[in-house]
Amino acid sequence: MGEFFCRRDEKSRVVSVVVNLIFLLSLLPLSYASRMGISRQKLEIQKHLKRLNKPAVKTIQSPDGDTIDCVHPSHQPAFDHPFLKNHTIQLRPSYHPEGLFDDNKISSNNKEKSKSITQLWHLNGRCPEGTIPIRRTKKDDVLRASSVKRFGKKRHRSIPKPRSADPDLVNESGHQHAIAYVEGGKYYGAKAIINVWEPEIQQSNEFSLSQLWILGGSFGEDLNSIEAGWQVSPDLYGDNNTRLFTYWTSDAYQATGCYNLLCSGFIQINNEIAMGASIFPVSGFRGSQYDISILVWKDPKEGHWWMQFGNDYVLGYWPSFLFSYLADSASMIEWGGEVVNSQPDGEHTSTQMGSGRFPEEGFGKASYFRNIQIVDGSNNLKAPKGVGSFTEQSNCYDVQSGNNGDWGSYFYYGGPGKNPNCP
């Protein structure tokens, strides 16, 4: 009998050891797989960084922590595109639009010339002739994105669609706007002088921007868009600095396009201005006001879309082959502000748009776009006709337009987000 119990104890011990062994073995593949997953992600990020960060002729450390690499123009990310393998860089546009405003015209509103703006990295140096400045992408930048594939890309549905202010659409997209727009014609470019601020962002996954949109096609899956302006985006840049940016897409933000030079597309030719770098200085409440001037237009000869910053800096171009509708012309132009409202704790975000003040507060307090223009089929800059305005929730962010001699067609826009009337 004792022998029987002894054997049974031994048997149960053996069974217990076997069960534990099976359990431990079952854990091994999981930890191995997770280790493999982590190392695969590391490898993917390293490869992506190598694609974006090209060999530099000179490197400049910016006071804000950015690293600016001065890179040979033919080595920039644009030339990773298969269609650009044998592309000859166009060093200047064939034609500039006629009838440019003088951006330094004295304004009756502020009785002084608009103050000049530069980029923060200029304090520590410049890129030599024959190179272009590229803001270096860091590992942390990529890690903040939802995936390596989505790094540097906007989410879908981030375009204001004035014709259908459907509240469901607003809530679904989380993007809110205060814009002026024109539609119904053929447009070959747009220009604006944009007041620069540093709006406060409530959560790191939100952003605030002020830009112009050049749009072609429907608001469906085939939307073409070229965008340029300033933005504060902690997710993209890792800080709350106001930065110059561009964006493009030819399929409504699905697979094509990106911010700045974070994919192949935009070809930069200018050695002075870095896409994605901090703008300095910015406007102060009841203080000095700072503007940037942005012009995007279609070269009538080559068909590429060019961008100019200020009076002096032609930055580069988007080759026409990137687009379907915009290969011909734009069907809508928009100017204004956009924020992401992620509805933290189910309430409206307090992320600011523009200066964070409502339009009626006016100059020195509210943010503005002035001298807004379109480029027509004869390559002339003209005041837009039939300008409409649009905002999803005017008690959160609003827009008010006007017209006068010095500022031409203009509007004030923006707001604080969450407030007693915007819960």
Topology, element by element:
Elements: H1 2-52, E1 58-61, E2 67-71, E3 118-119, E4 132-135, H2 139-144, H3 167-173, E5 175-187, E6 189-195, E7 208-216, E8 224-232, H4 234-237, E9 243-249, E10 267-268, E11 279-280, E12 291-298, E13 305-309, E14 313-318, E15 330-340, E16 367-375, E17 381-382, E18 388-391, E19 398-404, E20 408-414
Antiparallel strand pairs: 1-2, 2-4, 3-11, 5-15, 5-18, 6-12, 6-16, 7-8, 7-15, 8-9, 10-14, 12-13, 13-14, 16-17, 16-20, 19-20
Mind explaining what this structure looks like?
The chain is an alpha+beta fold. The chain has one domain (51-101, 122-155, 175-414). The protein contains four helices and 20 strands. The strands form four sheets. Strands 6, 10, 12, 13, 14, 16, 17, 19 and 20 form a nine-stranded antiparallel β-sheet that branches. Strands 9-8-7-15-5-18 form a six-stranded antiparallel β-sheet, with helices on one face. The chain has a three-stranded antiparallel β-sheet with strand order 1-2-4, with no helix packed on it. Strand 19 (398-404) and strand 20 (408-414) form a beta hairpin. The radius of gyration is 26 Å and the shape is globular. 44% of the residues are buried. Mean pLDDT is 88; it is low at 104-113 and 164-171.
Structure keywords:
16% helix; globular; 9-stranded antiparallel sheet; alpha+beta; 6-stranded antiparallel sheet; single chain; 423 residues
Oligomer: single chain
Low-pLDDT runs: 104-113, 164-171
Major β-sheet, in short?
9 strands, antiparallel
Kindly state the number of beta strands: 20
Class derived from helix and strand content: alpha+beta
Provide mean pLDDT, rounded.
88
Terminal Cα span: 79 Å
Shape: globular
Task: Provide the gyration radius in Å.
Answer: 26 Å
- Give the helix level as a range of percent: 10-25%
Number of alpha- plus pi-helical segments: 4
Whole-number total of structural domains: 1
Give helix and strand order, one letter per element, not per position: HEEEEHHEEEEHEEEEEEEEEEEE
Q: How much β-strand is present in the residues? A: 25-35%
